[in-house]
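User: Design a sequence. Structure:
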């Protein structure tokens, strides 16, 4: 169960939804997650502020920058992660985001790090396949 957080201050609600859809499509493409495994926090309010270096690591980005953080269970290979980054760049382009403006971090964790309500650790009691 990936949990996705997107911060795209310059995005209006329609564009923000398109970005969220792009991230979900890339997760399905690269990691094979179920299509109904869809949990996201999308933020795009113009009153928020993001700080970024416009040329860090030789990538020229601008105020269209989009930060994507994906929390997911550990176990994906580096090649799967590279495939996710490529798929996200492709899908995000269709959502109006230039790949140069994508800043992505994957945060891996274990089964005991998730609760889906009721104060329980459901993955510990019933591990997913």
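Assistant: Done.
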């Amino acid at each position: 169960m990936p949990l996705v957080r997107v911060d795209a201050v310059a995005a209006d609600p329609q564009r923000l939804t398109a970005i969220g859809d792009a991230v979900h499509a890339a997760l399905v493409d690269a990691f094979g997650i179920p299509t109904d495994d869809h949990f996201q926090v999308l933020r795009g309010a113009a009153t928020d502020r993001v700080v970024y270096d416009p040329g860090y690591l030789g990538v020229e980005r601008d105020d269209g920058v989009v930060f994507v953080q994906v929390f997911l269970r550990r176990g994906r290979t580096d090649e799967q992660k590279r495939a996710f980054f490529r798929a996200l760049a492709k899908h995000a382009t269709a959502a109006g985001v230039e790949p140069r403006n994508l800043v992505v971090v994957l945060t891996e964790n274990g089964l005991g790090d998730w609760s889906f309500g009721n104060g329980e650790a459901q993955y510990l009691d019933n591990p997913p396949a």
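Strands lie at 3-7, 39-43, 66-73, 102-109. The mean pLDDT is 92.
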